[in-house]
Structure formats: C-alpha cells, structure tokens
Backbone:
C-alpha cells in the first residue's frame, strides 16, 4: 500500500499512527491473477475450517481436473457430486460451488476483466447472489484479489478484535459502530483493516 495511506491514517488517528509504527510497513499484496470464480470456490472451501484442512480439500479437488491449475466453471459438469464429496466438501458446499459455477457461466459473477470495471458495492451485490457467498466473503475478494483500497470488513472477527485491542476497549465493537468510527480512515480503510489484523498478531507476541 502507498505512503499516502500511511500518512493519512497517521494524521487522522493517533492510535493508528502508533499501530503503524509498531507493525511496520503494510505488507498487503493482492493475488490479482485469480479469477472471481476461483476466489469464491476457495472461500467456500475455507468456511468453518482451518486453513490446513481447507487446503487439503482444495488439493484433492484440483486433482479431479488433471492438467489444470484450477478448473473452469464449465469443468464442474464433468464430475459428480460424489467425486467432489470424496474430496471433503459437504453437500451444502457442493451446492454452493455448483451455483457459483452456474452464475459465472450466466454472467452474474463477472469475469476478471469485467469485475475490474465495477464498484465495490456493485461487486458485493452481484456476487452475494450466489449460494453460500456472503458480504464478508466478497470483501475478502475485494481486498486480497482485486486490491481495492477502501474496504473495511466490519463483520470480520479479526478486524473487530484488533480494534478492541488497539483502542483498549473492554468489549468487541459492534459492526455498525466500527463502520462509523472507520469513516475517518476513508479512502484507505483497507490499509486500516490490515493494521487491525496486525494488532492481534502484536498482542499475541506480547502475551
């Protein structure tokens, strides 16, 4: 993230200024080569699972499609629900993955080129039409795939916990109050979110 973001956050918020000093430069680097389809399928795999378990399931899933780094939406028609289930996906997640594929093919979920032209809110509206895809999932895509600079995922546990720790609050902030507080961080709320995640890391090191 650019120096303008760090300067703005440090100027408008003394707590954020201390956090930036403690955590160092922002190391957020979006993975821009993933398609929205791939990002959403991977997000569904990670729901309610730790990273290691989700990655194991995804590795098995990709092996169903030899010669490809990741299947395309149309490739899912070549495999059965039972084959996908054997990889470790629940039937609910299989239904979500198939719906994501169908909505990618009909254009509801845009291509990588088309999504770049849409606003954050347009992307959230379009992608949350797919089964199993909520606002938080799309916000993670906006941050980690598209590199959008002004996203504050107020429902994210880590962001809320980081705020509690950095601002020395007794309780976790409600999403609505965190959104209101975060208005001062515009137009660099993604960078602010990254530093709130780091606040949790820093607290663990100090424990």
Residues:
């Amino acid at each position: 993230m650019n120096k303008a973001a760090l300067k703005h956050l440090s100027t408008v918020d003394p707590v954020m200024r201390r956090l930036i000093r403690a955590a160092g430069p922002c190391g957020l680097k979006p993975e821009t080569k993933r398609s929205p389809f791939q990002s959403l399928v991977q997000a569904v795999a990670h729901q309610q699972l730790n990273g290691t378990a989700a990655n194991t399931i995804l590795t098995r899933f990709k092996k169903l499609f030899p010669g490809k780094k990741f299947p395309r939406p149309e490739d899912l028609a070549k495999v059965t629900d039972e084959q996908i289930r054997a990889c470790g996906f629940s039937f609910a997640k299989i239904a979500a993955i198939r719906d994501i594929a169908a909505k990618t093919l009909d254009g509801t979920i845009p291509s990588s080129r088309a999504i770049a032209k849409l606003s954050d809110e347009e992307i959230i509206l379009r992608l949350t039409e797919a089964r199993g895809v909520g606002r938080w999932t799309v916000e993670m895509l906006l941050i980690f795939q598209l590199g959008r600079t002004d996203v504050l995922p107020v429902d994210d546990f880590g962001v809320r916990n980081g705020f509690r720790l950095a601002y020395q609050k007794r309780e976790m902030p409600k999403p609505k109050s965190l959104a209101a507080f975060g208005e001062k961080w515009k137009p660099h709320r993604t960078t602010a979110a990254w530093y709130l995640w780091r606040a949790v890391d820093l607290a663990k090191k100090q424990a």
Summary: The longest helix spans residues 189-206. The two ends are 28 Å apart (CA to CA). DSSP finds twelve helices and no strands in the chain.
